[in-house]
């Protein structure tokens, strides 16, 4: 679990180093389904207070690099090659968070736990899974109910263009659904 004041410190150091601190600021938000956000209008990078408390230091650091790269690359870059190059240059290796951003938008299997946490999968889950955000370790009380959705060409286009700016971090990126053991 990352200490929130430390997260703020890292963010401010990264902003001072790579962006204009007179323009860009950092804050926490209350999102539960994505870890980070780069708001180009307000020139503000935010990280979910809720997920920050659940992610480890390394993951939070990667989320910050992901968002700083968005700020540097500009909104139109999306998660395209320009963004990817800048992100890699900053030391972003966060395949888990990055894959999360892509996986979530296009994964056909969407699951919800009784508390409403959303999980995504490419393949139909073969075993009963319980929500890793609600509780570590399998617990039938937190069982995820899955449904299949249609991924349309329009959704693919949207994911390619509109995915910019948000790191979608939910259960399966940092706290994977807990399999029945
Ligand atoms: Zn849950
Ligand atoms: Zn992103």
Largest sheet descriptor: 4 strands, mixed
Bound molecules: zinc ion
CATH superfamily of the domain at 4-94: Metalloproteases ("zincins"), catalytic domain
User: Strand order, biggest sheet?
Assistant: 1-3-2-8
Q: What does this entry look like structurally?
A:
- It is a single chain.
- The protein is an alpha+beta fold and 181 residues long.
- The protein has a domain at 4-94: 2-Layer Sandwich (Zincin-like), CATH 3.30.2010.
- The chain has helices at 4-18, 49-52, 57-73, 81-90, 95-106, 153-162, 171-174, and strands at 25-29, 36-39, 44-48, 109-112, 118-121, 129-130, 145-148, 166-167, 178-179.
- The strands form three sheets. The chain has a four-stranded mixed beta sheet.
- A hairpin with a 4-residue loop joins strand 2 and strand 3 (44-48).
- Mean pLDDT is 81; it is low at 96-103 and 168-175.
In short:
The protein is α+β, with helices and mostly antiparallel strands and 181 residues long. It has helices at 4-18, 49-52, 57-73, 81-90, 95-106, 153-162, 171-174; strands spanning 25-29, 36-39, 44-48, 109-112, 118-121, 129-130, 145-148, 166-167, 178-179. Helix 1 (4-18) runs parallel beside helix 3 (57-73) and helix 3 crosses helix 4 (81-90).
Walk me through the topology:
Elements: H1 4-18, E1 25-29, E2 36-39, E3 44-48, H2 49-52, H3 57-73, H4 81-90, H5 95-106, E4 109-112, E5 118-121, E6 129-130, E7 145-148, H6 153-162, E8 166-167, H7 171-174, E9 178-179
The structure holds zinc ion (ZN) (2 copies).
Residues 113, 115, 117, 131, 133-134, 142 line the site of one zinc ion (ZN).
